[in-house]
């Protein structure tokens, strides 16, 4: 696995202004360090425990993003250092993040995760729930967080038209909400569909296997 070759190839496909979140889940700290040494500063992990294991072993200027489902009772572990939580899917979680951020005298950036896929996925807000939550945020309900954008995952399918349709729905919501309060980040697109996501308006992509190689879950 040539990390440099992979990383460079991905970077070369991203228009300027599109952020790359390198998804390092299941891959060892040595691989993260190697990609960091190539200039990457933003990394994503989907599990609190794995992030807590890696965090102390890696450079402190890494901007960590949590991209997987987060239980409220685990927020306290990452609140001291997490840059962005991309996977906020309930009001309860948003309130807990605000509370723990306050305890650490900091502001944590979050993205609202919105359900756009047709497949029965467990996590993500419905469009209407996301709108309500954003309004509560604007009204001052969560003082120690900053909602900086939206995150979504398209259906896992070969049908590119369907994937683009789903991305476009999230872009529509992004445009609507940003009228109320400016949003910066539209996070959509992974290794297999990031070019389509960018064409549909994504300005942040979460790429794992195309950089680090296949994940081996058997270990
Ligand atoms: C694992 C993961 C990714 C990266 O997936 P790849 O297909 O390996 O690029 C992106 N987003 C989320 C939420 C993930 O869990």
From TrEMBL:
User: What positions does the domain Alanine racemase N-terminal occupy?
Assistant: 3-214
What GO MF annotations does this protein's record show? pyridoxal phosphate binding
Cited InterPro entries: Ala_racemase_N, PLP-binding_barrel, PyrdxlP_homeostasis
Annotated SUPFAM superfamilies: PLP-binding barrel (SSF51419)
Record's Pfam families?
Ala_racemase_N (PF01168)
Read off the CDD domains from this record: PLPDE_III_YBL036c_like
Record's keyword terms, sorted: Pyridoxal phosphate
Q: Does the keyword Nucleus apply?
A: no
Residue numbers of N6-(pyridoxal phosphate)lysine PTMs: 25
Question: What superkingdom does the record give?
Answer: Bacteria
The yes or no answer to whether the keyword DNA repair is present is no
Task: Give the protein's cofactors.
Answer: pyridoxal 5'-phosphate
Q: Which family does it belong to?
A: Belongs to the pyridoxal phosphate-binding protein YggS/PROSC family.
Q: Cite the PANTHER family for this sequence.
A: PROLINE SYNTHETASE CO-TRANSCRIBED BACTERIAL HOMOLOG PROTEIN, PYRIDOXAL PHOSPHATE HOMEOSTASIS PROTEIN
Question: What is the stated purpose of this protein?
Answer: Pyridoxal 5'-phosphate (PLP)-binding protein, which is involved in PLP homeostasis.
Record's protein name: Pyridoxal phosphate homeostasis protein
């Amino acid at each position: 696995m040539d990390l440099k070759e992979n990383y460079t190839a991905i970077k070369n496909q991203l228009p300027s202004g599109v952020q790359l979140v390198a998804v390092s889940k299941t891959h060892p700290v040595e691989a993260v360090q190697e990609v960091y040494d190539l200039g990457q500063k933003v990394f994503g992990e989907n599990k609190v425990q794995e992030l807590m294991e890696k965090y102390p072993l890696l450079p402190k200027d890494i901007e960590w993003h949590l991209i997987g489902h987060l239980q409220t009772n685990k927020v306290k572990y990452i609140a001291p250092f997490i840059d962005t939580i991309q996977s906020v899917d309930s009001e309860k979680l948003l309130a807990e993040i605000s509370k723990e951020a306050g305890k650490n005298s900091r502001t944590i950036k979050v993205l609202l995760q919105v359900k756009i896929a047709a497949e029965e996925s467990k996590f993500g807000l419905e469009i209407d729930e996301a709108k309500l939550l954003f309004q509560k945020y604007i009204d001052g309900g969560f003082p120690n967080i900053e909602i900086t954008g939206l995150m979504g995952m398209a259906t896992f399918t070969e049908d590119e038209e369907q994937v683009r349709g789903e991305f476009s729905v999230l872009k529509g919501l992004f445009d609507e909400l940003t009228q109320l309060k400016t949003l910066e980040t539209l996070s959509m697109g992974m290794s297999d569909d990031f070019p389509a996501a960018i064409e549909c308006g994504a300005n942040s992509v979460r790429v794992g296997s195309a950089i680090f190689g296949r994940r081996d879950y058997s270990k």
